[in-house]
Amino acid sequence: MFYVFNHPVTTGNVEATPAKIPMKLTEGVIHQVDVLFQDGCDHEVHVKIFQGAHQLWPTNRDKAMKGNATVVSFREFHKLIGDNTELRALVWGDGTVTGVEVIIQIGVLPQGVIQPLSFEELLRAAAGTV
Question: Structure pTM?
Answer without folding.
Answer: 0.85
